[in-house]
Structures are given as C-alpha cells and as structure tokens.
Amino acid sequence: MSEFDPRNWFWIVAGDETKAWSSAARAFVTEYPADRLSRIANEVELYDVLARQYPVGAPSRTFTEAECIAALNNIDASVLETAVGNLNQAAASIGFNLPSIA
Predict the structure, then answer these.
(1) Partners of 39 in the beta sheet?
(2) Total domain count for the chain?
(3) Whole-number Å distance between alpha carbons of 59 and 3
(4) At what angle do helices 65-75 and 43-53 cross, to 10 degrees?
(5) Three-state SS for 63?
(6) CA nearest to 8, candidates 44, 47, 35, 41
(7) How far apart are the first and last CA of the chain?
(8) pLDDT digits (tens, 9 = 90+) for 5-53
(9) Number of H helices, E strands in the chain
(10) What is the pTM for the complete model shown?
(11) Of 7, 13, 31, 33, which has the fewest CB atoms closer than 10 Å, so is most exposed?
C-alpha cells in the first residue's frame, strides 16, 4: 500500500465499489488503484476527513440534514441525544467539520 497522501487518494463510499472518490479529480471515478484506496461510511465523513487534510479535494455539494444526522449517528449516537437540536454545536463538540446543510 502507498503512503497516504490526501492530495491523491481514493475512497470507496458506503460500500459502492463501482466508483471511488478521487481527491485529485475532486469527483467520483470508475477506475482507481487498489494501493491508494480507503473505505469510508458516507460522503459526510469523507467531507470531514478532507476538510481537515486537503479541503480542495472535499466534496463540494451541500448535504441534507438527514445525511448529516446519519453521519453523526454513525460516529457517536450519544452526541445527538445531548445536542438539543443544535447540529452545529453537536458536530463541534466532537471536532467534526460539518458541511453546509441544504
């Protein structure tokens, strides 16, 4: 496996092996190298990873509130219980970079 380089890496999102997100292309691609590949649960988590390490390679679309809530549920279900409806506060409390919500 190659050394991780967020500027030129690929992610299989939500188990869909027909495509992978390319940080270099800033898009999904259908061909990707196995030695520069990771799996990630969803696009919101992918956004979080790339927003920290290589922001220009992150997905640029907006995410629905439901997508963000589902991602937070995957990361830490207890955060949502104490968030009192403030999704941004909940995300900040665990250091999660939340994308814009449509």
Answers:
(1) 12
(2) 1
(3) 22
(4) 80
(5) strand
(6) 35
(7) 37
(8) 999 999 999 999 999 999 999 999 999 999 999 999 899 999 999 999 9
(9) 4, 4
(10) 0.70
(11) 31
Report which residue type is found at 19: K
The verdict on residue 35 lying in a domain is yes
- Does residue 4 belong to any structural domain of this protein? no
Neighbours of 98 (CB within 10 A): 19
Q: How many C-beta atoms lie closer than 10 Å to residue 93's C-beta?
A: 13
- Domain membership of residue 76 (yes or no) is no
* Strand locations in the chain (E): 10-13, 20-22, 27-29, 37-40
Tokens of 24: 């270099």
What does the mean pLDDT of the chain come to? 86
HSE-up of 28 (CA within 13 Å, CB side)? 12
Q: How does 30-67 read in b/e, with b if 16+ C-beta sit within 10 Å? A: eebeeebeeebebbbbbbbbbbeebeebbbeeebeeeb
